[in-house]
């Protein structure tokens, strides 16, 4: 089997494919339901706000448990946390699917299944980032390249999600829930057979008190740029999921685009997000100057374009152009955030710090749909203008907190 890293036998092509399957599956597990929500509202008899809870319940469970999973992965090992988590995601899909299929009032059990999936997501997707760092040791260029592939898999999942969700729902409206379990099973098999975690040099993991002390020191020393990166993660996913929720509803109500056709239309901005993510991940190569430059450009583009989403809601072509620009901006931002976290935190704390970052991203995922369901009718334009202003504030934080000289001197002292 060909190896991506000749000097490191465990990093094979199939190892990377297996790792990339996790964000793909976890993204499908959430985003695939967005185009199906209007159908769920009719079939289950729930409101728009209640349907948004199907997305939010998954994310809240993940937010609360991701830091725990990150700590456990640092203590017990990445693979020992990832595999049980994927099994939980599989079980959650079966519960939600069976409840939708057999129960007269399935909403509560759908939420229970989604919470289980969220718990599974908390111990799977966030652990991939530190695991990539472990596999490539201190090779920033190869780490950035692999993280770009992982983030592209995540965004490719978002492209596939509306199409697959619409196709599955056209066959059986509850089939998307069962499909999540099938995808999780595939990922379990890949991880079990193809991911070989490098052995730790230390005989024993550090004690909990020392570990907590080290984390506090890390936040004290790196806190300014870490908080800036965390907030950018929240912003990116908040904008993305609020726009997707709005677009899904708007295509049906305003433009009478439904079913599989709607899935393909939703995939347009997401495809551009995926391409942007891939190109960015391939080109940053661990260079902090490039990373900061991409953060600045992405935030400027996102902050300007998001303002026009509401104003173009009645003109389909313009709406797709604007949301595609938003997608390009977010696609460029995400692999940059992954890279700056993974390449600048020590291995012993990488899992935990990465987990805080992943929790931050899930806050945006959790908040986007319910906020949009509340503001969509009366405050749409104002909410997107506020989003643009928040983006500009984050741009200021990036300028203040991400100091190129400090990162370069730290890299030289490795």
Automatic annotation (TrEMBL):
Assigned keywords, A-Z: Cell membrane, Membrane, Transmembrane, Transmembrane helix, Transport
Family: Belongs to the major facilitator superfamily. TCR/Tet family.
Residue span(s) of domain Major facilitator superfamily (MFS) profile: 15-405
Taxonomic source organism: Psychrobacillus mangrovi
UniProt subcellular location: Cell membrane
Primary subcellular site in the record, as a coarse category: membrane
Highest taxon, organism lineage: Bacteria
InterPro entries for the chain: MFS, MFS_dom, MFS_Efflux_Transporters, MFS_trans_sf, Sugar_transporter_CS, Tet-R_TetA/multi-R_MdtG-like
Name this protein carries in UniProt: MFS transporter
Membrane-topology annotation of the record: Multi-pass membrane protein
